[in-house]
Amino acid sequence: MKLVVDIRRKRHPGKAQDTIGRLAFSAESGEFVAIVGPSGAGKTTMLKIIAGLDKDYEGGLDGAGDDARLGFVFQEPRLLPWLNVADNLRLVSPALSDAEIDAGLAKVGLADTAAEFPLRLSGGMQRRVALLRAFLVRPELLLLDEPFISLDAPTAESLYQVLAELRSDVLPTTLLVTHDLREALALADRVLFVSHSPAQLILDYPIRLPKPRRRDDDAVSEMHHALIAQYPELLGGLGTVRPNKEAA
Amino acid sequence: MNPAAVRTLPAEAVRASALLVLLVVWQALAWKVADPLLPSPAAVFVSLIHHLTHGELLHHLGKTLMRVAAAFVIAMLVGVSVGVWMGRSKLVNNLLDSLLVLMLNLPALVAAILCFIWIGLNETAAVLAVALNKIPTVITNIREGARALDTQLLQVGEVYRVPRGTVLRRIVLPQLYPYIMASARSGLALIWKIVLVIELLGRSDGIGFQLGTFFQFFDLTSILAYTAAFAAVVFAIEALLLRPLDRRLNGWRA
Predict the structure, then answer these.
(1) What is the CB neighbour count within 10 angstroms for residue A119?
(2) Predicted local confidence at residue A235, as pLDDT
(3) A139 to chain B: nearest residue by CA?
(4) Are B155 and A53 in contact (CB < 8 Å)?
(5) DSSP3 helix / strand / coil % (chain A, rounded to 5)
(6) Residues B195 and B128: beta-carbon distance below 8 Å
């Protein structure tokens, strides 16, 4: 399902400044778009608007909110600690059979954990469950809010693989919000750079490298260096970058 | 016994030992004083057996228990519902808050007298008077819990469009269990105490009524025997109902 986002303005009540200036972009059905910007740029607010959690903004959406089957992976795993893993998955997809749950868990490398309570699992394992939960609803739109933050590199890398494998089955239109440029380059088809708050789009950058990629692949590293060299202000989010000719 | 040995004793034995000490001190005091106004535990036990087998203790205990149960259920249902409502909605909270403060500070005796005068000297008035005393404290407790609900987990329900009933059962209530259990414990204790006063005031059966009768005869042994029967029921409820429930609800904590 194609996603069209046109947020014209978002201001939190009681704040003097807008959180989001103007953010307009679209993502093709099945496309993986990463949104990179500095911390506090309003990226999470944008995801909440797209998810329909925040309806107090100016603008419009298509293929999001109440129109699309939605998967959402948050910064923290957000599993319910009093439900075991199987019941956590059933909370969002009540029709799942035991066999389907076991098969799903095996696919993300967590065979035999259906009866475990989340607090007994490691952080990386909890995130696998959270990823699986998002895919079991067979989402048309998948929103990822820095889901790999604060993980060590090997754990993050293994979760990239889990994500890629789960995505290949369902192929949802995917938005990944991150401030880790390497992560964006390793995973996405396209990277959108946003400025400091009030967030605005400053660069739309396609990635035409073959998948799967790893964050320390030579091609990814090369692209990372080239981007930093070409747009030194980019990750500062100062918004002084001229639109990229290739993307335009 | 050395400290390490004490620590490995089963929890039940440790709990019981405090009661045992109390009994021993009491018995010793009773021997020393040797006055009918301080009957010994042994005398109270004999009296308890007598009231159980020949008297009407079970009848009155049953009556009191029924009132306690009715008032408890009403207080918990109303208190939890209103508490969640007030905790989640600013408007409702502002509307009801001053009423709540008034209710919290309304003396039990006033509530009882008003109920008996307005409704009559009957069961409804008695149970209502007790429930009215307990409801505001339940509301206050549960409101705190409802205010502390984890928005992040509620958002999971919202994003995945989990039905309202399921959200309540699986996301909201489990977060309120500690508050509900605390309310239930303190509630049971408070209700016991008030039920007896209200029975003394306006009922012709129940433990409170009996205690009033014994009081007129200065029959301390019977008063203590009834109190013991009563304490036994409280311990049974705690051990057989509340503690197992606690364990069940807290099984997920690592």
Answers:
(1) 12
(2) 66
(3) B160
(4) yes
(5) 35, 20, 45
(6) no
Q: Residue B254: which of A72, A80, A120 has the nearest Cβ? A: A120
Residue-range definition of the domain harbouring residue A2? 1-69+139-147+173-248
* H-run or E-run covering A128: helix A123-136
Contact between chains at B170 and A117 (C-beta distance less than 8 A):
no
Contact A83 B253 (CB under 8 A): no
* Structural domain range at position B82: 67-219
Cβ-contact B87, B145 below 8 angstroms: yes
* Tens of pLDDT, residues B163-198: 999 999 999 999 999 999 999 988 888 898 899 999
Q: Would you say residue B14 lies in a domain?
A: no
d(CA B196, CA B208): 4
Torsion, Cα of B177, B183, B186, B188 (10° steps): -100
> Taking Cα atoms as reference points, which of A93, A45, A51 lies closest to residue A72?
A51
Flag if B160 and A80 touch (Cβ within 8 Å).
Answer: no
pLDDT of residue A64 exceeding 90, the answer is: no
* Residue A234 falls inside a structural domain: yes
Tokens of A92: 């969002």
Cis status, amide bond into A118, omega within 30 of 0: no
Measured distance CA(B230)–CA(B68) in Å, rounded: 12
Cβ contact, residue pair B252, A83, below 8 Å: yes
- A38: domain CATH number? 3.40.50.300
**What type of residue is A12?**
H
| pLDDT band per the 50, 70, 90 thresholds, residue A35 | very high
Instruction: Give the count of domains, chain B.
Output: 1
Q: Is residue B50 part of a domain?
A: no
Chain A: closest CA distance from residue B248 (Å): 11
Total tally of structural domains belonging to chain A: 1
Residue B51 counted as domain residue: no
Alpha-carbon span A191 to A175, nearest angstrom:
10
Residue B250 lies in a domain: no
The ipTM is 0.86
Instruction: Give the residue on B whose Cα is nearest the Cα of A118.
Output: B252
d(CA A214, CA A119): 29
Question: Virtual CA dihedral for B193, B194, B200, B206, nearest 10 degrees?
Answer: -70
Chain B interface test: which of A82, A136, A137 (most B C-beta within 10 Å): A82
The pLDDT value given to residue B69: 93
Q: Based on the number of CB atoms within 10 Å of its own CB, is B93 exposed (0-12), middle (13-18) or buried (19 or more)? A: middle
Nearest to A91 among B152, B162, B251 (CB): B162
